[in-house]
Amino acid sequence: MSCDICKKPFNILWRRDTKCKRCNRIICTDCSKLQQVRDVFRNICKVCMQDCETIRKIISESLLAWNHNSEIAKRYWVKDVEFIKSMYKLNKEIKQSNIARDVKTILQTPMNYSIQEFLNLLIFNNRDVEVTITNVVDTFVTRNPKVGYNQYLIKLTIFLLCFCKDYVCLKILEDLYNKIPKQYYPEYQTTQEFIKDHDQMQHDAIQDVKFRFKLEQDQIMAAKQFIESAMMHYKNQFFLNLTFSSAFYILDKIIQSTDSTEIDKFFSVIIQININQLQTKNSELVIARTTTVEGIKQYQNQLAKKRSSLYLSVDKCAQDARQQSQQSCRTIQRKMDVSEFEVDENENLSHQSPTLLQSQKLEITKLTQELLSLEQQINQLRTENQQLEEISVQNTATLFKEYENAIGDLIDKTEILLKQQMMSG
User: Fold this and answer.
1) Residue 130 lies in a domain
2) pLDDT (tens digit per residue) in 370-385
3) CA-CA distance, 340 to 40, in Å (whole number)?
4) Among 5, 118, 128, 326, which one is most buried in terms of CB atoms within 10 A?
5) How far apart are CA 160 and CA 64, in angstroms?
6) Rounded distance, CA 398 to CA 42, Å?
7) For 110-159, how does the pLDDT look when each residue is reduced to its tens digit (9 = 90+)?
8) Residue 200 has pLDDT above 80, yes or no
């Protein structure tokens, strides 16, 4: 047996210390920290210590309070709080009776150890909390019938209300569901069309993981089984089954991003981080433990570097195409210069013999027509080349500057298709 954090084996000299009183890891003395929580001392692992420090830092620095607009919400998540307040009105009467019942049930069911600790620090009066959550979810469902309702929506609302007022929470919920594909709408997931879409989503996720990262065959099989069994569970709740630090990092990025595939990219990263834990017992708890913000950033950086190299390849292809077009124009110009030289020589010959005059005139006429035709071809090629350069510049500016996230996804999918072709070939 070994320490769940540092992986050092336990022996006579290296004895097991205890279980972490927060995440239940088996930890050694070096990986254990003594923390005081509400006048009670407890041993927790150093990973949990870091997560606790992150929670307290965010609460204190961003002035978090239940159903209160924090600095995070006002500065990064929405633009005009007062305008939102005037536009987003909550229902005075609850229209969905099952929502109130579900809210009460979920509040009585603890979430994972990290998220629950964060909620415990901010939520006190259960009666007021239930009413607020129910009003927000009920109003959202009423305003957005195409999105629909499930219990994941309640969990997301509870988390968001720790950062903002109810009307801002409603706005953020609508923005979130407007930017993600309809396949993540609870209402759409009840339709027959979703069954076909779900199979395709699983296939795309498997191919994405398979070609985005270097995996062994057994790892690919583990990823495939995990995608088939857990993909929607993670995505539907926006990864709120991870620790607070990781869940907050991911949700913050999704809220601020304009990329509709951001949720899919984070899921791929989580699979890669936990590729050797996907089939372990209590895999959801293990994944929550092992997924850290540092790990997520590390794989994001790897993907960013990979995407940058693809951008350079695309730029080089565009540059080669422009150079090839310019070389074609120069070739035509050289042919024109040779033809003009031939005309001058024919004119000189015409002075030498009158019998050659008529034939030379005919030849000159023929060459002149050819020259005019060549000039027209050159002008046409120059126009086409200029149009190609303008289109290339415009596309480059648009695709690589204004819509960088969109083309990044396109390049990823193109790479997958190319590799599939190579494998099938």
Assistant:
1) yes
2) 677 777 777 777 777 7
3) 98
4) 118
5) 11
6) 55
7) 889 999 999 999 987 767 899 999 999 999 999 999 999 999 999 999 99
8) yes
The secondary structure of the chain in percent helix, strand, coil, rounded to multiples of 5, reads: 70, 5, 25
Domain match, 67 and 113 both: yes
Number of compact structural domains in the chain: 4
Range of the domain at 328: 315-424
Is 172 in the same domain as 100?
Answer: yes
Q: pLDDT tens for residues 272-323?
A: 999 988 888 889 999 999 999 999 999 888 776 665 544 445 455 555 555 6
Same domain? For 5 and 40 the reply is: yes
Q: What contacts 178, CB < 8 A, 6 or more positions away?
A: none
53: its two tokens: 């420090």
Report the SS3 class of residue 422: helix
> For 310-335, what is each residue's pLDDT tens digit?
444 545 555 555 565 555 555 545 44
3-state secondary structure of 149: coil
In which region does residue 341 sit, left (phi positive, over 0), alpha (psi from -120 to 50) or beta (all else)?
A: alpha
Entry pTM: 0.70
Are both 406 and 325 inside the same structural domain?
yes
Q: What is the model's pLDDT at position 379?
A: 75
CA distance 254 to 257: 5
Domain contains 310 = no
Positive or negative, the CA dihedral 148, 149, 155, 159 is positive
Enumerate residues 6+ apart whose C-beta is below 8 A from 422. Answer: none
Same domain, 168 and 90: yes
| C-alpha dist (Å) from residue 381 to 114, 170, 316, 331 | 65, 56, 22, 11
